[in-house]
Amino acid sequence: MKGVLLVNLGSPDSPSVPDVRRYLREFLMDGRVLDINWLARFCLVHFAILPSRPKQSAEAYEKIWTPEGSPLVVTSRKVQAKLQERVQSPSSKVQSPEPQGAASRSVVSGQWSVVGSPPIELAMRYQHPSIPDAIGRLAEKGVTDLLLIPLFPHYAMSSFETAVARVKEVAATLAPAMRIQVQPPYYDHPDYIQALVASAQPFLGKNYDHLLFSFHGIPERQLRKSDPTGSYCLTTPDCCRVVGARTFLSAATSESQAAVNNPNPESRSSVAADRNVRAPASTPHQSINPSIHPTTAGDIHHPSSIIQPPASPLATCYRAQCFKTVAAFVSAANIPPKKYSVSFQSRLGRTPWLKPYTDYELPRLAAAGCKNILVICPSFVSDCLETLEEIGIRGRATFLEAGGNELTLIPCLNEHPLWIEALARWIQDWLKPVLL
Q: For 213-255, how does the pLDDT look when each residue is reduced to its tens digit (9 = 90+)?
């Protein structure tokens, strides 16, 4: 039987200081988030961060908390429910019912629809709903083949990679026979771009001076660690433009799935980011590789048991993938080059992160005469603390204090119909092989 698991980052169970502390402890003690040795990480988290940060973060969460709970979790649950409904109740006619989990060809439109659709579970990498609980429920339902869809469009060791690694670790213990396939990063997938542009269109149609693409930042060292060549990323100002060239793309499209299914920060080994690097036109997105096998928990901790990483930096370069998203978006939305720029938010600590920093760009844009700006955060598919509070509240205040008139935060994809349709289509594509 086939099943689907959606995984997002997570949220504290409540905006209380104890719950926020518990969430931050789990999040920051992840070696793919704070990628330093365990002792240094333990000391930094427990003696420098946890004594004060939970109270500050709790105050921020309190500002965005809803009567239903955390916006991220609430929205993710709604996406799960709508997606389950979508694959159970296709809009077009289907053939006679097949066994549960099978797929059938629509006799009207030729589209694929799911009959007796696979169960869809939701989990968060940190806190609740938990990955062990979700895997357990799927196993109890008899799921032996799992499609894992990380709700992160771009590959980063601190998001996409850690989610995949944790699911495989848990499955190896709770359901060792379960076969796992992973939806690759979809940073320039036509379905994702179409949904992103459509969700932003009501705002793009209004009068504005500038559109800022604000992506979640990562430390520069993590970008270098994810570089399979060990010597490419951040070595030149235009590295992300060149990495999209044909010499690299052929390797990236054939090997990105290997990187997705073999996350391993231990086996991978600054130039300031160019503010407006323009990636070349997108190539067709990699389809799901059906030949993915479950790993054991030991695989995650023993690099020698994992296959070699991909040859192309594009397969695992978060920064290059962000620029590919921007290139695809502005092409589809017909936005001129001088009307948009790119920045990175949410940095933590004093080590260099990807630049330019969003909190520096906002006052710079105001000073440059951009009085009415739009901000979109494509690395998040659901609104959360980083969008609603960091950009929508603090970012807006920073912009206004610098002389700007209005900052409009474009909502994330959330429950947009085209996003639900994109997810449903990926599930349907995954189910196609059962008909061969």
A: 999 999 988 888 877 666 667 766 777 776 654 333 333 333 3
Q: Which candidate, 370, 379, 383, places its Cα nearest to that of 341?
A: 370
Cβ atoms of 282 and 327 closer than 8 Å: yes
Q: Which residue has the higher pLDDT, 202 or 99?
A: 202
Least Cα distance to 256 among 299, 281, 286, 295 occurs for 286
> With contact defined as beta carbons under 8 Å apart, do 329 and 378 qualify?
yes
Q: Is 426 in contact with 287 (CB distance < 8 Å)?
A: no
Kindly give, in sequence order, each residue whose CB lies less than 8 Å from that of residue 417, ignoring residues fewer than 6 positions away. none
User: Pseudo-torsion of CA 25, 269, 161, 359, nearest 10°?
Assistant: 60
Q: How far is CA 417 from the centre of its chain?
A: 19
Between β-strands 179-182 and 145-150, what pairing exists: parallel, antiparallel or unpaired?
parallel
> What pLDDT does 231 receive?
64
- Locate 415 and state its tokens: 């429950």
Helix (H, G, I), strand (E, B) or coil at 156: coil
**Contacts for 394-403: CB closer than 8 Å, 24+ residues apart:** 395/214, 395/345, 395/358, 395/359, 395/362, 398/359, 398/362, 398/363, 399/362, 399/363, 399/365, 399/366, 399/373, 400/366, 401/363, 402/362, 402/363, 402/366, 402/367, 403/366, 403/367, 403/371
With a threshold of 0.90, does the pTM exceed it?
no
State how far the Cα of 328 lies from the Cα of 200, in Å rounded to an integer: 14
Alpha helices by DSSP H, 349-416: 358-367, 396-401
Q: Would the CATH topology of 2-90+116-185+416-431 be identical to that of 191-236+311-409?
A: yes
Q: Which two tokens stand for residue 313?
A: 């930096």
Tokens of 249: 């793309």
Q: Tens digit of pLDDT for each residue in 74-118?
A: 999 999 999 999 998 655 333 333 333 333 333 233 344 444 589
Q: Classify domain 191-236+311-409 by CATH number.
A: 3.40.50.1400
> Distance between CA 9 and CA 379 in Å, rounded?
12
Q: Are 316 and 227 in contact (CB under 8 A)?
A: yes
Domain limits, the chain = 2-90+116-185+416-431, 191-236+311-409
Q: 3-class DSSP state for residue 66?
A: strand
CATH number of 2-90+116-185+416-431: 3.40.50.1400
CB 430 within 8 A of CB 181: yes
Please state the φ and ψ torsions of residue 341, each to the nearest 5 degrees: -155, 175
